[in-house]
Amino acid sequence: MAIKGILFDLYGTLIDIETDESMEEIYRGIAHYLTYHGVYLHRWEVRDRYYQIMKQRKETCGEECPEIDVELIWNTFLEQEGVKSTPECRNLALILAQLYRGISRKRLQLYPDVKRVLDELRPAYRLALVSDAQPCYALPEIKEVGLDGYFDPIIISAHYGFRKPDKRLTEIALEIMKLKPVEVICAGNDMYRDIYGASRLGIKTIFIDSNQGDKSHENATPDYHARRFEDVLRGVEALQG
Predict the structure, then answer these.
(1) Which of 23, 142, 171, 183 is 20 to 30 Å from 130 by CA-CA measure?
(2) Total structural domains in the chain?
(3) Contact yes or no for 206/235 (Cβ under 8 A)
(4) Number of other residues whose CB lies within 10 A of the CB of residue 107
(5) Which pLDDT band, with edges at 50, 70 and 90, does 86 fall under?
């Protein structure tokens, strides 16, 4: 059966990103910002509370591969500090989440040849994203690097509460696209989350050997190994044949 769609991972596959969540500046900046909203905590109290709420959510969600929602974490954080749950509070949670990301982010750029390859693929194939990510991070960052409008649908794990290799994320994409597993290729940089996850559904896979992600997994063998992103074109051609 002919290949009609390609499901791409985002970070480590299309976008080369580096973040450092250990930076003191993150928690100092957020602690200072919170004082303008009547919340007075030391920066390390902010950090510890944030990770405590995250841990609790993961432990109680009941998923094998749990995914957190950072906006909900910050909303819970604010509620614990006596900030009433209102539309304004939810907006503040979004601001705190993006402030956290903005300070922790050290690099955000496309890998070489990403746009050229996508421009060659999209006249012939439907392109979708299936990403372990946060909407409040990923959607603005997709726009920032110039990939807005390339993908439909965009499936982001934080919307659902579970992450790859849980096959449900890919199944959601296939249902929206009205395509079967044999009609798509999955391309990603992580042998466990991307390649193993997709292969469980019988989907052909392209492993993109970037500077991020797990390079091997005992139960994962990609159908094509792309050493550079431009090799994806040859991989699609080979798997289409």
Answers:
(1) 23
(2) 2
(3) yes
(4) 9
(5) confident
Q: Distance between CA 45 and CA 48 in Å, rounded?
A: 5
| Matching residue, tokens 């907006």 | 91
Say if residue 86 is exposed, middle or buried (CB neighbours under 10 Å; 0-12, 13-18, 19+): exposed
Work out whether strand 154-156 and strand 184-188 pair parallel, antiparallel, or are unpaired.
unpaired
Distance of alpha carbon 202 from alpha carbon 220, whole angstroms: 12
Reported as a single tens digit per residue, the pLDDT across 122-151 is 999 999 999 999 999 999 999 999 999 999
Same domain, 188 and 101: no
Residue 232: give the domain boundaries: 5-18+108-240
Tens of pLDDT, residues 174-183: 999 999 999 9
Domain boundary among 88, 106, 124: 106
Residue 90, pLDDT score? 75
Considering the domain architecture, whether residues 126 and 187 belong to the same structural domain is answered as: yes
pLDDT of res. 170: 97
Same domain, 122 and 66: no
Give kind and range of the element (H or E) at residue 18.
Answer: strand 15-19
Tens digits of per-residue pLDDT, 27-49?
Answer: 999 999 999 999 999 999 999 99
Token representation of residue 65: 């591969």
Residues in the chain, total: 241
125 lies in the same domain as 217: yes
Q: How far is residue 15's CA from residue 89's CA, in Å, rounded to a whole number?
A: 31
CA distance 160 to 60: 15
Q: Percent of the chain having pLDDT more than 90?
A: 93
| 62 close to 47: Cβ distance less than 8 angstroms | no
Directed axis angle between helix 135-144 and helix 87-104, to 10°?
60
